[in-house]
Amino acid sequence: MKLGITGSDIISNRSGGTVHVINVINELKRYYDVLYFPDPEILNRLSKEEISIRIKELERDGIEIVSSFYDIINENYTYNDIIDVYSSENVDFLFSFDYGYLMGLNRDFTVILSKKMNKNFGLCIMSYGDQDRHILHYIYSTIKLSLNVKILLFRIVDYINDFIIFKRLIKNKNLLFIVVMNNNYKENINLKFKNIKVLSPSNGINNYNSNILKYRKNRKENKIIFFARLHYMKGIFDIPIVLYHILKNIDTKIVITGNFDRTFKEEKIFWKLVDRYNLRDKIIYKGYLGNEELYNEISSSKLFLYPSHGDSFSISLAQALALHTPVVAYDIAGLGIYKQFNAVKFVREFDYKEMAGEAIKILKMENTEILFDNSIDKFITEHSWHNVAIQYKDIISNFFK
Fold first, then answer.
1. Between 315-322 and 16-28, two packed helices, what is the crossing angle to 10 degrees?
2. How would DSSP label each residue in 118-184?
3. What is the DSSP string of 248-268?
4. How far apart are CA 333 and CA 335, in angstroms?
5. pLDDT single digits (tens) 236-267
6. Which of 52, 132, 155, 307: CA 20 to 30 A from 335?
7. What is the SS3 assignment for 190?
8. Which residues in the chain show pLDDT less than 50?
9. CA atoms of 69 and 83, how far apart (whole Å)
């Protein structure tokens, strides 16, 4: 069977979702002939040089990209021209990871291509279900998160866009099934569609036994860590406020790693908040770190502060647990799977004082090891990319029949 992968923005996006897609595709290659079709919208977001560099990186990661795309990036093809070129490829079934990531109101790449090819398709909703889309909560969170007009307008348009997209999607005759990351996704997006399949496990951790365990340390320093994509939805704007309340009760510092998202000028807003609360000497910004330095920072930190507003699983949280670093996080849908562990403390979303209070309790502990037991190692071992990919394989094969 030849499986065409569409819709996943693994060329420009280097988030946890990208890690998920690349690892699952490489596992699915054991069972299918897999071919990746880049979304034509990517040509409007990156330069040809940037795309070419990223394609070479993906090929080194084992991803086979449709050969015609090399001609496409060097010629002035229109969107419809690209669809025509793609449609000449021979595939049996289409599957979209992270459905809708680059989609505009009128350009539904996966649906358009499936219609042109006359092929059925399935899809995974990886990011759309990680936020509570119920209107009252969405309005409240939009007000809290909109620190500039651009974010406010984006979230309003995004909500309307999603509503239209999914209403239209579930009526499509070529759509056979939808995959979601956890049960809460079904509640958040509230789709009236009969074939919704839930992944469990929904994510994996690379080379857990060989790469992470050797960095585990017992000695913890008096510091907090925040490591994630530095985006407003990951809680980068919440960090200064929570830290301000923590410092009222205990002296500490926070190490921040990762790259700032440039879409909404997060870096500028973040440092304005830092200065507002006079926190410059309490924040150590290290930017992007390689695995070795990152794992050393995580394992030597006494706490991982994670005020994320949208997650499907959070590999970051799993990595912190693997390195025996306790976590304080918001009680959001995508992180519910971690409620079974004493080392993860949940607080109400946007409750900065409650989050600070839980953080202070952990920072004052003499020995945080008492929060960990063997259940965490068992959990992380079970969450292998092979186990995740097997579920995709079984779902695709059953519906393709």
1. 90
2. T--EEEEESSGGGS---HHHHHHHHHHH-SSHHHHHHHHHHHHHHHHHHHHHTT-TTEEEEEESSHH
3. TT---EEEEESPBPTTTTHHH
4. 6
5. 999 999 999 999 999 999 999 999 987 788 99
6. 155
7. coil
8. 105
9. 11
Reading the block at residue 300, the tokens are: 């030597």
Q: How far is residue 84's CA from residue 115's CA, in Å, rounded to a whole number? A: 11
Q: What distance in Å separates the CA atoms of residue 153 and residue 159, rounded to the nearest whole number? A: 10
Q: Could you tell me where the DSSP H helices lie in 247-322?
A: 266-276, 291-300, 315-322
Contacts of 282 (CB under 8 A, 6+ apart): 243, 247, 252, 253, 254
Provide the pLDDT for residue 159: 84
Cβ neighbours, 10 Å, residue 263: 11
Burial 277-316 (b: 16+ CB within 10 A, else e): eebeebbebeeebeeeebbebbbbbbbbbbbbbbbbbbbb
The upper half-sphere exposure of residue 61, i.e. CA atoms within 13 Å in the direction of its Cβ, equals 21
- Residue 372 to residue 162: CA distance in whole angstroms: 40
Task: Note the pLDDT of residue 19.
Answer: 82
Whole-number pLDDT of residue 250: 97
Rounded CA-CA distance 312/97 in Å is: 13
The two tokens of residue 360 are: 């202070």
Q: Read off the tokens for 380.
A: 């992380």
